[in-house]
From TrEMBL:
<dbReference type="Pfam" id="PF13458">
    <property type="entry name" value="Peripla_BP_6"/>
</dbReference>
<dbReference type="InterPro" id="IPR028081">
    <property type="entry name" value="Leu-bd"/>
</dbReference>
<keyword id="KW-0732">Signal</keyword>
<keyword id="KW-0813">Transport</keyword>
<protein>
    <submittedName>
        <fullName>Branched chain amino acid ABC transporter substrate-binding protein</fullName>
    </submittedName>
</protein>
<feature type="domain" description="Leucine-binding protein">
    <location>
        <begin position="40"/>
        <end position="380"/>
    </location>
</feature>
<comment type="similarity">
    <text>Belongs to the leucine-binding protein family.</text>
</comment>
<dbReference type="InterPro" id="IPR028082">
    <property type="entry name" value="Peripla_BP_I"/>
</dbReference>
<keyword id="KW-0029">Amino-acid transport</keyword>
<feature type="signal peptide">
    <location>
        <begin position="1"/>
        <end position="22"/>
    </location>
</feature>
<dbReference type="InterPro" id="IPR000709">
    <property type="entry name" value="Leu_Ile_Val-bd"/>
</dbReference>
Amino acid sequence: MNPYRITAIAAAALTLAACNNAEPQQDAASAPAAAQEHVVKIGSANPLTGPFAHWGRDADNGVQLAAEEANAEKLTLDGKPVRFEVISEDDQADPKVATQVAQRFVDAGVAAVIGHLTSGAAIPASRLYNDAGITMIAGSVTSPKFTEQGYNNTFRIIANDLQQGQALAKYAVTELKSKRIAVIDDRTTYGQGLADDFAKATEAAGGTIVKREYTTNSATDFMAILTSIKAEKPELIFYGGMDAQAGPLVKQMRKLGIQAVFMGADGVNTAEFAKLAGKDGEGAYASSAGASKELMPGYAAFNTKYKARFNGEIQAYAPYTYDATRVVIDAMKRANSADPKKYLAEVGKTSLQGVTGPIAFESNGDIKNGTVTLYRLEGGKWAGVAKPAGDASAAQ
């Protein structure tokens, strides 16, 4: 070996050793901040593909925005800086896929889950979160069954379908004077449960259900069931389901010459329904399981932030998932921990002014004083027809 090369190698080794010995305390004491911070994972579960993807992406955006704002605050928990990381999963609004997503969240060690979007996906997934002790807060799940399971880790920040069904039925019978009413649902947990509640409340208000029909949440042809309904001469047709089916359904109603009023709930109250239904959707009624955007105390500011961040319009549930994420982070701050075992109790004690309104929970996890707002489609836009109120027994 070349003697010069040996010398050069030895010199380099000595130089490296000298550098290492010169600052031993600095390396140990000044580790990168990123290595010291604690990453808190938040699961966001929604249909990100398929016919409900516009809802799902909107809901996921709300979670992302809340987490980003929390990160900008440079929060510390238990003396350590924390960074919130949102893990977004596509549950395809499918119960089976939703449980697979739930298991992945459990395996990933998420500290909380915001979602799932639909009742049919959320209810089976909630069992896994309950078994794992993970906090779950839904911003759009309206089936009463969701909070009837007896889980202490399950919450929602939106009114339920019992409240929506009662408000819609009372408005249909007492305000629209519709006595002969037909009901269709898509056989999902959400759609069928909502239709059941609406039908029961309709009869209690003095109306008559002249026909009850069923479809699926993937159907596109409703001519057979509508022909059957037409023979009963209904004054109003109520649909329990989502906008992807409601739009074509109302168009086929008009094609058959059915002039009955069309009514749905929060699954229909979207810009997508107006687009799909076109002029045939004019005059339709729908509800939202919460205050109208005009009456949401923080909507204007949130809408500005949302448009700037995502370069798009709010579909429906982004304000609710944003608030749900803030509820979780607020509970962590009060408990000084991101461990669900330590902060879960604080969720139930929440008293927070959110974008959507004041947030506090009943003992079963339902939001206190849930409100329902009714809308009518006019000129392709949903316009509120009544102010919301906490009394779910009234048309609001």
